Amino acid sequence: MLLRRFEYVHQVVKYGTIREAAQQLYVSEPTISQQIQKFEESIGLKVFKRQGRKIQLTDEGRLILPIMQQALLSVKEFDRQVAEIKDPNRGSIRFGLGPIATSTILPDIMADFNRQYPNVSLNVTEAGSVELLDLFDRDQLDISIISLTDTLYQKYQQLENIKCKRFFRSNFSVAMSETHPLAKFTKLNMKDLYDESLILYRSSMIKQALLTELGSEIENNIVCYTDSIEATRNLVVKNIGISILPKYFVNSWSSDQSRGLTFIALDEGQLTLNWSYLYKEKEYHPIYLSVFIKVIQQHVRNKFQKIK
Fold it and tell me: Could you give the 3-state DSSP secondary structure of residue 305?
């Protein structure tokens, strides 16, 4: 009963109203209202405050919500691992990766792994490295391909029960329209970008590196955040701004993909990220997860070994 009440609270917060939460859970509105009221009485705290039809967390509710959500995640993880123990060839993997990996290696990874484990589903989350790291830390991903700064890479290398393996270190290139004034240079320094309009992928580590190198005021130069590499490319071609992309990635582009663009290398060492994968070591580690990691390693090597 307690976990059910946790779920009611979680869904009300997620959807913003009791009505919507009730629809999602296939229960009546009075059922949710009564159970939340009984929950509040049992713990001696008000979780929600109501203003007309609006319902919001109280200060105390905001403090205990993460505890309830973690309990729900733990129960779901328990159920998942029990199911995997019963049938080692059936299960799921929560896999996170950025748009570059999605557009280059994800189809081959999924096809290869599915041939070996057709009854294991891949639940894929595409996001920037900052968001992926947050999801991983909150135990909502089993494994993630992610770009890490040197500081973060060293941090996760030292954490217990976490495996952090680097594929390679990547330098970066500045992508710009071939008519852009900077296109005449053969190499650029980070400080050359100080007055330029920037187009960056949302929640990427590149933004953090720029803030560290050039100061917080560089954030005013960001004219657009994108959610896809294709959107970034099209904006840069139109000379809306310049972007910063991994060198190994742009080196893999075809002539059609590069048409209208110029890529100028950044001075080596100024901006370097560790293209890595993270996963948590647990007492129960299904064989198919080990196989999945090997599949990832193989396809990353095949795709980028010669061009990074």
Answer: coil
